[in-house]
Design a protein that fits this description.
single chain; alpha+beta; two-stranded parallel ribbon
Length: 184
């Protein structure tokens, strides 16, 4: 299909024309018989493998909280959980989770958005020596943090190197000594 327009020679070529870009796109789009069949039978058009779960990085009590006039008190008293705070809770309650780095958690657990918790996977490859624990090839991707954000940058570095922390405070403990997170 071709899209073209016809103008008289006397028309002002610099005049602003009303162009309906959406109509032009729909008129000019071509769907082959193969794509049409795949869409009719609801076959997946693009494969997304492995899945990537984005993992938040924030300082203690530094997570984003979205609220309205109706729920402002509830959100102020009970801040919603994040993937990071849920990871700490998971490490407190589960010995296997304490062996994992933050970025490894999505391979063994799924993120429940409504409850803001990690839930053990029910399918996948069984883990040797761990009954009822399964592994998928899901990747946990931590959000980037700019080095100018000193404390958050150091926190991110700790999260990718310390297995199974139970709290923000525990990340600061090295060989039994609690360290302050200062500029490096």
């Amino acid at each position: 299909m071709a899209v073209f327009s016809v103008q008289s020679e006397n028309s002002d070529r610099n005049a602003v024309r009303d162009i309906d870009e959406i109509a032009q796109y729909q008129a000019g789009r071509y769907i082959s018989s193969n794509e049409a069949a795949w869409r009719i039978f609801s076959f997946p058009m693009h494969e997304r493998n492995p899945a990537v779960v984005h993992l938040g990085v924030h300082l203690e009590n530094g997570q984003y909280v979205y609220f309205t006039d109706a729920n402002v008190q509830q959100r102020a008293l009970n801040t919603p959980g994040t993937t990071l705070t849920a990871f700490f809770t998971l490490c407190k309650e589960n010995a296997f989770a304490r062996t994992l780095m933050y970025s490894e958690v999505p391979s063994y657990y799924t993120w429940n958005v409504t409850k803001n918790v990690f839930v053990r996977r029910r399918r996948g490859e069984p883990v040797d020596g761990q009954p009822s624990i399964f592994r998928e090839n899901t990747i946990g991707g931590l959000y980037n943090v700019h080095p100018n954000q000193d404390e958050c940058f150091v926190l991110r570095m700790l999260l990718v190197n310390v297995p199974g922390p139970r709290s923000f405070q525990q990340l600061k403990i090295v060989d039994g000594v609690t360290h302050a997170i200062d500029k490096y």
